[in-house]
Write a structure and sequence with these properties.
The complex is a heterodimer of chains A (422) and B (458).
Chain A lengths: L5 E3 L2 E3 L3 E3 L8 H10 L3 E7 L10 E6 L2 E8 L8 H14 L4 E6 L5 H13 L4 E5 L13 H4 L2 H14 L4 E4 L7 H10 L4 E4 L3 E3 L2 E2 L6 E2 L9 E4 L4 H12 L8 E4 L5 H9 L2 E6 L1 H6 L4 H15 L27 E5 L9 H9 L4 E5 L5 E5 L9 H5 L6 E5 L9 H13 L1
Parallel strand pairs in A: 3-4, 3-16, 4-7, 7-8, 8-9, 9-10, 10-15, 15-16
Antiparallel strand pairs in A: 1-2, 5-6, 6-14, 11-14, 12-13, 17-20, 18-19
Helix pairs in contact in A: 1-2, 3-5, 5-6, 8-10
Chain B lengths: L10 H7 L9 H10 L7 H5 L6 H10 L2 H11 L3 H7 L6 H4 L11 H14 L14 E5 L3 H12 L3 E5 L8 H5 L7 H12 L4 E3 L10 H7 L2 E4 L19 E3 H9 L11 E5 L3 H12 L4 E5 L11 H9 L3 E3 L2 E8 L5 E14 L5 E5 L5 E4 L2 E4 L7 H6 L4 E2 L2 E2 L13 E3 L14 H19 L9
Parallel strand pairs in B: 1-2, 1-4, 2-3, 4-16, 5-13, 6-7, 6-13, 7-8
Antiparallel strand pairs in B: 9-10, 10-11, 10-12, 14-15
Helix pairs in contact in B: 2-4, 4-5, 4-8, 5-8, 6-8, 9-11, 9-17, 13-14, 14-15
Classes of the chains: A alpha/beta (422), B alpha/beta (458).
């Protein structure tokens, strides 16, 4: 059986699954239940000056009958007295010494305040500290959370403040509500962060009620933007993790967060450079019991691949993630339809006909049966047909044998320049 | 169904027995199934539907919450779409063609269609409006699926349509001829209302040939459509047919549609003769009327039975027994003229008859007696030959001969659609086929008059 324990920035965890700082880690009771269920760690719901919350708080984006494709919240950091949280962190760590507890912290961007809170959580035995510089709603209006996280200089400074007092690893959590995530990732690294975690939630409004015209959710008829997370944000998060992982100026461990719901998502984030992952929405949708499949699926995957530990996958796809200008312009892929598997829904045909390159024909075979065929000379290999196809194996995207050597845009521009020089 | 086995059935239980047997989808079921639809392009379910309903379209509208639009899509293509949602042999049509048969399981299209049309019924949705009058008049004889469908389309095109209906209520087969536990009468009557609110006049209790003559109609109207369907079950032609306890299945179903439940079935042994759609209706009706034992007798076998698979299943679930290769020879009564026994004979299949179906032949000396209290005849339906002759139309044994594209009869002013042209190798006696023929007849009439008509909606 493969070993799925991790050592993340010096923090040892029995598995790569931590609960993200959020409603599931609000109390000792919850975190202890999570550890009993098998979660490797928990990032405690952000501590700071206790705040007031509103009702209601959550909204979700449902799609085609699928509940919670995306999830939105306007809940703030912990609204419980800091002493209660510290006491429960202490008790929980005593009960589960091998499990990881990270204290998520958010205070005003002042040196003394950070020093004070860092020391207080260290005293109760946390394994690490996560700086919440990403919360996009509420706290940001008070100059905290993403108000800090959107300014690289403030990210660097705040990280530095925390590091000055910290004896345990410091993880800087980044907001995605920024044009270039690597700007703040580099700032965190410059500030001395031991790791970064990303992404926090994305500014969002889930919807508007068609009858009342109120926002969803609404608080007594008014709404405010919330933070978006859940499966829908996974591709955004994965890109940001990949961009940080391949940036040589970041070069610190990454805790992957954002829509991770399955062991497959976990493998993808780790391949793209995450040293561990944090999960929230999937647990909020289904409960802590999902950890069973998350860990077992990951172990089985590694076993099937003949890999004995997670170090065998972490970052293995980072080199494959590059700029568009490095992609091979001479590479050709075309769609091929397997008519023995195809169920003739014709979705590929209409998608291609109306919205792509008009190269899938609806024909009859010699026995008069309906078949679909790709005119390969017109196919641009866009994948659209295979994306809309509802049946696995009905459409293959085939690599054609190259007729010319690989050439990227960069290669091409370099070649043109060489020619011009002559 | 245990109540059915007791010798006493309260009126309440009887009424309940005849309520629609299949529950309708709730919103969540409808949504779940609608979301499962792939929304195929050039979908085979559309091709398989005789009326060509845009099935993926109406299903997606359920998924989006546009149920009114969904109902309109259905009713646009099929003026009796609410009835068809219940009575169509969907596994042989749309659901049988669903591409998901090749991967998971087909979409329950009939149930979804019922969900949308039920919504329209409950919400009293107005889906269509009459076209601007174009000055042309059409008489339609018979208000069943074919007649209603023709009327609906003509009214939308601006024709002034009058329907002549011999019975006290309109709707024909859907109102009177299909068991209420599959098709409640009010569904059919809603479809009638839909047509009436387009300004179509329906003269009920008006029998052509008695209250008004064929010649007058042909004279008074620009066109006449004959959509009278079929008539009663024919005589078995055997001894004892006049005895008490012999029922015509069509009559029996009609009584129950009107809420009149004959009491004498309770605890009785019933034999139904025939194995078509009406035989199944007769048998399952007998069960619901409290019969203790119901047998279907058929002179051929399961393989030749014309009832649909789902009907066969339905009857078996009701506990109906099937006696294949069995034919009645003689009905035997007691001294009071009530049937008590039936002499039957065993059959075998030999070669094939003129229609290409295996020919049942009596096995000599295989006669036997069967104790019965009630016999329900369901061996087919007779034709309205007299009426057809009154119009002077060319026909074969009561099946009107029409041009297959225009539905025009041997009289160029007279058209015919529905069961009245079914038979002799022509089409299927399905409600949905009649609906489509009605649409096509209306279009053919319009094709003929559109030049001379003052205006039309299209």
């Amino acid at each position: 059986m493969a070993d799925i324990s991790i050592n993340f920035a010096g923090i040892k965890s029995p598995n790569p699954y931590w609960l993200a700082s959020a409603p599931p880690t609000n109390t000792g009771y919850q975190v202890q239940r999570a550890f009993e269920a098998g979660w490797g760690g928990a990032v405690w719901k952000t501590l700071g000056e206790p705040i007031l919350n509103v009702t209601s708080r959550f909204g979700a984006h449902h799609f085609n009958g699928q509940r919670v494709a995306g999830f939105n919240n306007i809940e703030l950091i912990s609204d419980r007295p800091i002493e209660d949280n510290l006491k429960e962190i202490y008790e929980t760590k005593k009960l589960f010494p091998k499990h990881v507890i990270i204290a998520s912290l958010m205070v005003e961007p002042q040196r003394e305040k950070w020093h004070e809170i860092v020391k207080r959580v260290q005293d109760v035995g946390v394994d690490g500290i996560e700086l919440n510089l990403g919360c996009p709603h509420g706290m940001s209006e008070r100059g905290m959370g993403s108000a800090v996280g959107q300014h690289p200089d403030l990210v660097e400074m705040t990280t530095m403040y925390a590091k000055e007092a910290a004896e345990v690893p410091v993880i800087t959590k980044l907001t995605p509500n920024i044009t270039d995530i690597t700007a703040t990732a580099k700032a965190a690294a410059r500030g001395g962060a031991d790791a970064i975690s990303l992404i926090n939630t994305i500014n969002s409004l889930i919807g508007v009620d068609l009858d009342t015209w109120n926002t969803i959710p609404n608080v007594n008829g008014k709404g405010a933007h919330g933070g978006y997370c859940g499966p829908a944000v996974k591709p955004i998060a994965l890109n940001m993790v990949g961009e940080c992982a391949r940036n040589p100026e970041v070069n610190i461990p990454i805790s992957g967060i954002g829509g991770i719901s399955t062991w497959q998502d976990t493998v993808e984030f780790m391949l793209m450079g995450a040293g561990g992952v944090q999960i929230c929405t999937a647990a909020m949708h289904h409960g802590f019991r999902i950890i069973d499949d998350l860990t077992e699926g990951l172990e089985n995957y590694l076993d099937e691949k003949g890999i004995d530990s997670l170090s065998g996958i972490i970052g293995k796809s980072v080199d494959k993630y590059t700029d568009w200008s490095n992609l091979d312009l001479n590479h050709k892929v075309v769609a091929r339809i397997n008519n023995d598997v195809c169920i003739n829904c014709n979705k590929c045909h209409i998608a291609c006909e109306d919205t792509s390159h008009q190269c899938i024909e609806m024909l009859k075979d010699e026995n008069g049966n309906d078949i679909l065929r790709v005119r390969e000379e017109d196919c641009v290999g866009c994948n659209l047909c295979s994306i809309v196809c509802p049946v696995d194996g009905a459409i293959d995207m085939i690599d054609l044998t190259p007729t010319e050597p690989p050439m990227s845009w960069n290669d091409r521009q370099a070649a043109i320049q060489t020619l011009e020089k002559r | 169904m245990s109540d059915l086995l007791k010798n006493f059935i309260s009126g309440e239980v009887l009424t309940k027995n005849f309520e629609e047997s299949k529950p309708s989808f709730n919103s969540q079921e409808a949504l779940d199934e609608a979301n499962r639809c792939l929304y195929c392009y050039d979908a085979p379910c559309i091709t398989a539907c005789p009326t060509g309903i845009d099935i993926p379209g109406f299903i997606k509208k359920i998924a989006s919450g546009n149920v009114k639009g969904s109902a309109k899509t259905i009713m646009e293509s099929n003026p009796v779409g609410a009835s068809c949602a219940r009575v169509c042999p969907t596994e042989e049509l749309c659901e049988g063609a669903c591409v998901l048969n090749h991967s998971t399981k087909p979409i329950p299209i009939g149930d979804l269609q019922r969900f949308s049309t039920d919504w329209a019924i409950q919400n009293e949705a107005i889906l269509f409006k009459a076209g601007k009058k174009n000055g042309k008049t059409v008489a339609i004889i018979g208000s069943g699926p074919a007649g209603l469908s023709t009327a609906r389309e003509l009214a939308r095109l601006g024709y002034e349509v009058t329907i002549y209906e011999a019975k006290e209520e309109a709707g024909g087969l859907d109102t009177f001829g299909i068991v209420p536990f599959r098709l409640p009468k009010e569904i059919s009557l809603w479809e009638v209302e839909q047509v009436k609110q387009l300004g179509v006049e329906i003269r009920t209790n008006t029998e052509v040939g008695k209250d008004i003559y064929a010649d007058e109609l042909v004279e008074q109207y620009d066109a006449v459509v004959l959509s009278v369907g079929m008539s009663k079950v024919p005589m078995l032609g055997i001894e004892g047919e006049e005895l008490e306890g012999i029922y015509d299945a069509i009559d029996l179903v009609e009584r129950t549609k009107n809420g009149d439940y004959p009491k004498e079935f309770i605890g009785k042994r019933v034999a139904v003769i025939g194995a078509g759609n009406t035989a199944i209706d007769g048998a399952t009706t007998s069960v619901r009327l409290g019969a203790e034992n119901v047998k279907i007798l058929y002179r051929r076998t399961e393989a030749e039975m014309t009832a649909y698979d789902f009907e066969y299943e339905f009857a078996k679930q009701d506990g109906v027994e099937f006696r294949w290769l069995t034919n009645p020879k003689r009905l035997i009564g007691d001294g009071d003229g009530r049937i008590t026994q039936m002499e039957c004979i065993r059959m075998e299949l030999k070669g094939s008859g003129a229609d290409g179906r295996p020919r049942p032949v009596e096995i000599e000396g295989s006669e036997f007696l069967m104790d019965v209290d009630i016999v329900v005849k369901a061996i087919g339906q007779t034709r309205y030959e007299k009426l057809i002759e009154a119009f002077g139309l060319e026909h074969k044994d009561g099946v009107i001969m029409v041009d297959s594209d225009t539905f025009v009869t041997s009289n160029p002013k007279v058209y015919a659609a529905g069961d009245v042209i079914f038979g002799k190798g022509n089409g299927e006696a399905m409600v949905v086929t009649a609906a489509q023929q009605g649409k096509e007849t209306a279009l053919a009439i319009h094709e003929r008059f559109k030049e001379s008509a003052m205006e039309s909606v299209y």
